Amino acid sequence: MPDVDGALAVVVDTWTESVLVRGARIGDQRGREALRAEAAVAALELEHVPALKWRAMVGAWDLVATALAPGRPADLSPGSPDVTRLGDVLRSSCGSTIRGMVPEYADRWLDWTTRPELERLRGSRLLHTCMCPAHVLVTRDSVAVVDWRRAARGPAWVDAAYALVQLVEAGHRPDAALGWVRKVPAWSAASPEAPRGGQRTAGTGQRSPSHGGRRSPRSC
Q1: What is the pTM of this model?
Q2: Gyration radius from the chain CA atoms
Q3: Residue partners of 189: CB distance under 8 A and separation at least 6
Q4: What is the DSSP letter of 215?
Q5: Which helix (H) or strand (E) holds 155?
Q6: Within 13 A of 42's CA, how many CA atoms are on the CB side?
Q7: N or C: at which end does the chain have fewer Cβ atoms within 10 angstroms?
Q8: 68: enclosing H helix or E strand
Q9: How confident is the model over 26-36, as pLDDT tens digits?
Q10: How far apart are CA 17 and CA 107, in angstroms?
């Protein structure tokens, strides 16, 4: 079936396992770049990330298959145990060092910020950049972060900033969400000059008053 962005997304059941197959047409450059990011991250065999099963060119399609992660979308409302599990994910291998396999996060902001701020958005950590509940699947015994098509490399605090936005949108008071995110090592260790205050715009596509009403880059 078509995915939300017009690409292919289908679950394939075999005799031994079920896999999620995503695809983009050969002429869809943006879609294929997203698939390359998904495949690159899946091939790293990281904790909480569905593993790469195969990649193939079939007819007019570029296809990537990953393990099908079980679970339901995370409940990030106040008092939910899933909030703690999200914190565990942010402390784990989702912040692993990655070089060259995914785009630089700073490049999304070339037209939106100053050169010194761009330098603060550069880094070598793997970023998901869309830590919404639909992409954090939980079961009784596991947590999986899925859909890495918007993966990037940058400073580790970025995903914590996006998680902060998700907590507020799920009903947490801003001061409580900020207190929670301060317990994430990547956030607490970030330079005070890191432009973290702009992540509300980055995470939700809100209009930026300093850019004539144009929309800033979205996380997903």
Answers
A1: 0.84
A2: 17
A3: 157
A4: B
A5: none
A6: 27
A7: N
A8: none
A9: 999 999 999 99
A10: 38
Token digits of residue 178: 């900020």
Structure tokens of 210? 């300093």
**Number of neighbours of residue 17 by Cβ within 10 angstroms:** 10
As a whole number of angstroms, the distance between CA 7 and CA 9 comes to 7
SS3 167: helix
Contact 42, 102 (CB under 8 A): no
4, two tokens: 């939300």
In whole angstroms, give the CA distance from residue 134 to residue 220. 11
Length of the chain, in residues = 220
Instruction: Count CA within 13 A, CB hemisphere, residue 53.
Output: 19
Alpha-carbon dihedral 21, 22, 23, 29, rounded to 10 degrees: -150
Residue closest to 159 by CA, chosen among 208, 193, 123 = 123
What residue type is 51 in one-letter code? A
Question: Quick one: which of 125, 106, 206 has its CA closest to 165?
Answer: 206
Instruction: Name the token pair of 177.
Output: 């969400």
Sign of CA dihedral 170, 176, 179, 180: negative
The contacts of residue 35 (CB under 8 Å, 6+ apart) are: 7, 22, 23, 24, 55, 62, 64, 149
pLDDT digits 0-9 by tens, 19-64: 999 999 999 999 999 999 999 999 998 989 999 999 999 999 999 9
CA 49, CA 149: separation in Å to the nearest integer?
Answer: 12
